[in-house]
């Protein structure tokens, strides 16, 4: 559960922690559980959000009793809608070559860059913007005239995906151990007034060549595989195929919250892009 196999001793520790400290907040319980289990990210940070979600799931099943919530989570990013921006909407319809040398910048550690990504997605992407949870990189793409053309967000991989897991050859234990080796392209937006043939696949190729190094700089490890989920009723996935991403099939149209198999969500096509020739072997080690 929550990316972790809970051993019998750990289960007893968790139950005792909650039962013996009814006066503690959920925030403190999650932090203390991380210390008790030495539950950290690859960069050494406590996984208190994962711990809190784990305890909430256990409480929903009636296996533990948590104290009442006292307020919003101290480390949950609650962002107000971004302020309206005035975007230059002059159509850009030149050829890819005429755009000149495209500049692709990773901006996840720059306040202004993050704000620009957020504003563009909130205004123009059909899914809007959601604060990335966990490891993530954010890219902006500009032309020689400094015009914003596109934004991309990469984050944590899907916890379970049957076609992907079968393609890799994962057991549940190996998936748990190696999931951080996959980065998910969660958002890709070409701004609506930009209509340049081959731009999307070109950008995907450029980002694929640098993302492992960018991830290493920020988080101390390298992904070996990219994945994305393309909503079948909206998009054909043409730019991913043109950029040599491999289709693995489709999702079953169910949410991860759909325990009774009644909640229908849009079917999505699954695409992956190995960043190394031995990506599957590396993920199985």
Per CATH, what is the topology of the largest domain? Answer: Aminopeptidase
- SSE string: HHHEHEEHHEHEHEEH
Low-confidence stretches: none
What structural category arises from helix and sheet content?
alpha+beta
Count of alpha and pi helical runs? 9
Strand content: 15-25%
Please tell me the total number of domains. 2
Q: How many β strands by DSSP?
A: 7
- Which CATH top level class of the largest domain fits? Alpha Beta
Q: What spatial order of strands do you see in the largest sheet? A: 1-2-3-4-5-7-6
Overall residue-averaged pLDDT value: 88
CATH architecture of the largest domain: 3-Layer(aba) Sandwich
Largest sheet: 7 strands, mixed
Considering the protein shown, what is the CATH homologous superfamily of the largest domain? Gcn5-related N-acetyltransferase (GNAT)
- Distance N to C terminus: 21 Å
Describe the structure in your own words:
With 285 residues, this protein is of the alpha+beta class. The chain folds into two domains: 1-76; 97-284, 3-Layer(aba) Sandwich (Aminopeptidase), CATH 3.40.630.30. The chain has helices spanning 8-20, 26-37, 48-60, 111-124, 162-168, 172-178, 199-219, 238-242, 279-284, and strands spanning 103-106, 137-142, 148-156, 182-190, 225-231, 246-250, 268-274. The chain has a seven-stranded mixed sheet with strand order 1-2-3-4-5-7-6, with helices on both faces. It starts with 7 loop residues before the first helix and ends with a helix.
């Amino acid at each position: 559960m929550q990316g972790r196999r809970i051993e019998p001793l750990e289960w007893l520790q968790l139950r005792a922690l909650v039962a013996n400290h009814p006066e503690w907040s959920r925030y403190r319980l999650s932090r203390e559980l991380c210390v008790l289990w030495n539950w950290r990210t690859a960069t050494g940070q406590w996984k208190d959000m994962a711990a809190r979600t784990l305890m909430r799931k256990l409480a929903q099943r009636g296996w533990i009793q948590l104290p009442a919530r006292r307020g919003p989570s101290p480390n949950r990013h609650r962002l107000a809608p971004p302020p309206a921006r005035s975007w230059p909407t002059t159509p850009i319809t030149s050829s890819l070559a005429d755009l000149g040398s495209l500049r692709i910048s990773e901006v996840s550690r720059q306040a202004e860059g993050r704000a620009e990504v957020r504003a563009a997605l909130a205004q123009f992407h059909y899914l809007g913007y959601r604060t990335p949870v966990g490891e993530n990189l954010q890219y902006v793409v500009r032309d020689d005239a400094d015009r914003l053309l596109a934004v991309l967000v990469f984050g944590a991989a899907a916890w379970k995906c049957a076609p992907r897991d079968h393609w890799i050859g994962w057991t549940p234990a190996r998936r748990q151990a190696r999931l951080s080796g996959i980065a998910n392209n969660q958002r890709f937006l070409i701004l609506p007034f930009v209509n340049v043939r081959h731009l999307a696949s070109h950008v995907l190729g450029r980002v694929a060549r640098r993302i492992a190094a960018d991830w290493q700089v920020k988080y101390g490890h390298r992904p070996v595989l990219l994945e994305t989920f393309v909503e079948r009723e909206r998009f054909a996935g043409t730019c991913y195929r043109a950029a040599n991403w491999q289709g693995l099939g489709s999702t079953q149209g169910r949410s991860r919250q759909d325990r009774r198999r009644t909640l229908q969500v849009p079917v999505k096509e699954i695409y992956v892009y190995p960043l190394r020739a031995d990506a599957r072997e590396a993920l199985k080690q």
